[in-house]
TrEMBL record:
The lineage of its organism: Bacteria, Pseudomonadati, Bacteroidota, Bacteroidia, Bacteroidales. Coiled coil: none annotated. The keyword Acyltransferase does not apply. SUPFAM superfamilies: UDP-Glycosyltransferase/glycogen phosphorylase (SSF53756). Gene3D superfamilies: Glycogen Phosphorylase B (3.40.50.2000). The keyword Disulfide bond does not apply. Keywords: Glycosyltransferase, Transferase. This is Glycogen/starch synthase. InterPro entries: Glycogen_synth. It comes from the Bacteria. It comes from Phocaeicola faecium.
Length: 558
């Protein structure tokens, strides 16, 4: 429910590289939130994304030639914009505008020069995806300007919400050229903070001492850092996704968030009742079957299935400490069940293993392992892969007498990978426990999703989600709460590995009744993170932006 005391928008435009483009965690934020906002602002919510599927069918987007037809004609003929209008194929089916940003490459130098003159955005040191993101961002700003000019007036309260540094240029464009529109900018993780952590530099103990601009120069991140910092300082409302990232913004961007927009989710993808039990059984059978055929062994139904997943950020996501914990678990005499652990992170996949695929077609029981009995798909970089390197270093060979076995699934679990052939959400119910011991994690959807599937999880207090759970519980959450939150610092790697090992051992000793209680508690925590509880923060952000925009207009006499 929106408070009567808050200013509310009449129209919301929201841009992100992930609109109809499933490439990262922000996709989950936007796609699960859309239904809640669409219900509050029916067809007055417009998402703007890059038309990167041009010439190909986008399964996430349904074009509608009649939708916004009059404006689309104006935008194409008078404003020279190449756009497609339709709906995003997600719950709520919001109106979506996909824009072809490639025509702006021809004038990118002029765009960058003007951004420097207007907002001191440094694009001179750009490389990689900076140009692509910036041209999309600029194009998105032009789209909103076009719609406003043709359809709206100063009497309409309008929000432009830009997500991540990739949309910063568009937010600044709107700020200058359509000052009547209130701007909101969300950084989901600072580009420089992620880079510091990813380059094996201690982030948290020295955060107060780091200068963001200096570190950007050192790590060759100047342009991305510049657009992110300048956007944060100039928009009407700057936001981020957790208290831990807010502190990062304060130190590295020299700008604290006006509002913290904690990430919620919808659990409508989680099966219930008999459907859940059937999916859990099917998933466990599939995971054990892959293992048995790969390892040439017979793991019992009582095997404890443990998993981690997400982006392949070896240190930031805590994959290294997860493997270290599993190694230590092999020597734990208190372990009561055999453990089969999965590492499901997309690597540089070559192809599904033909030898494993052939075995999976057979109903025969095999008693000899395949070559490299710890990976399901061949990689292009087998000799330089971090997971494989660490397994080799730890001598985790998956020998028959080892009570802890590890399998690396280096592909996107889309249901068509050639080996597992079940989608991620169809596999999730099969696990007994998940482990996400992140070092750098602004929020953390993966542990939240796990708990929604009644699968208890392990995370850390360096993840925004972990901090939120501790606040919710009023103490460091334990396994009995459905989520174990481990204290993590720059330097306590070994203690974290021990804590993960001990939690896995603790779970292995639980009775069926105790396990059932832990699983129910996990689901209960996830229930508290639904969008219906967190959306109120967005209304606060809209209010802040609208009031600051009105003040800005008054001061500048627009």
């Amino acid at each position: 429910m929106i408070s009567d005391k808050l200013l509310t928008p009449d129209y919301i435009f929201e841009s992100s590289w992930e609109v109809c483009n499933k490439v990262g965690g922000i996709y989950t934020v936007l796609s699960t939130r859309a239904k809640t906002l669409q219900e509050a602002f029916p067809d007055r919510l417009f998402f703007i994304g890059p038309d990167v599927w041009s010439g190909k069918e986008n399964p996430l987007f349904t074009e509608d030639d009649e939708l916004l037809k009059a404006w689309r004609t104006e935008a194409e003929t008078k404003d020279n914009l190449k756009i497609r209008v339709g709906r995003w194929n997600i719950p709520g089916n919001p109106i979506t505008i996909l824009v072809d940003f490639t025509p702006f490459y021809a004038v990118k130098n002029d765009i960058y020069t003007q951004a420097w003159l207007d907002f001191q955005v440094d694009s001179l040191h750009a490389y990689g995806d900076y140009d692509e993101a910036s041209m999309f961002s600029y194009a998105a700003g032009k789209v909103v300007e076009s719609y406003y000019r043709h359809n709206l007036t100063v009497a309409d309260k309008v929000i432009y919400h830009a997500n991540e540094w990739m949309t910063g240029l568009g937010a600044l464009y709107i700020q200058k050229h359509v000052p009547q529109i209130a701007t909101v900018f969300t950084t989901h993780a600072t580009s420089i903070g992620r880079s510091i952590a990813g380059n094996n530099k201690p982030l948290y103990d020295y955060l107060f001492a780091y200068n963001g601009d200096q570190m950007a120069r050192e790590l060759n991140m100047e342009s991305k850092h510049s657009i992110e910092k300048q956007t944060a300082h100039h928009v009407d409302c700057f936001t981020t996704v957790s208290d831990i990232t807010d502190n990062e913004c304060k130190e590295l961007l020299e700008k604290q968030a006006d509002v913290v927009l904690v990430n919620g989710f919808e659990d409508d993808f989680v099966p219930k009742g008999r459907s859940y039990s059937a999916k859990r059984q099917k998933a466990r059978k599939a995971l054990l079957n892959v293992a048995n055929k790969l390892l040439g062994t017979r793991l019992g139904d009582d095997t404890m299935l443990v998993g981690t997943s997400g982006r392949y950020e070896f240190k930031n996501k805590g994959i290294n400490v997860y493997l270290e914990a599993l190694n230590r678990l092999t020597r734990d005499k208190n372990l009561k069940r055999d453990v089969l652990a999965f590492v499901s992170v997309p690597g540089w996949v070559g192809e599904p293993r033909k030898d494993l695929a052939e075995r999976l077609k057979s109903k025969e029981d095999f008693d000899t392992p395949l070559e490299c009995p710890f990976i399901t798909h061949w990689l292009h970089n087998m000799s330089h892969d971090q997971v494989l390197d660490m397994l080799k270093y730890l001598n985790m060979s998956n020998a028959k007498d080892m009570r802890v076995k590890v399998i690396f699934v280096p592909c996107y679990l889309d249901g068509n990978d050639g080996i597992v052939n079940l989608a991620y959400y169809d596999l999730m119910p099969g696990f007994d426990l998940t482990v996400y011991p992140s070092y750098y994690e602004p929020w953390g959807y993966t542990p939240l999703e796990s708990m929604a599937f009644k699968v208890p999880t392990i995370t850390t207090d360096l993840a925004g989600f972990g901090l939120w759970v501790n606040t919710l519980k009023g103490h460091y959450a334990t396994l009995q709460d459905g989520v174990k939150v481990i204290h993590r610092t720059d330097y306590n790697y070994s203690e974290v590995a021990d804590a993960i090992r001990d939690t896995l051992t603790e779970y292995s000793a639980l009775s069926p009744k105790e396990i059932d209680k832990v699983r129910k508690n996990a689901a209960a925590v996830a229930e508290q993170a639904l969008w219906k509880y967190f959306i109120k923060n967005y209304y606060v952000a809209y209010d802040v932006a609208l009031r600051n925009a009105a003040k800005r207009l008054e001061e500048n006499k627009f």
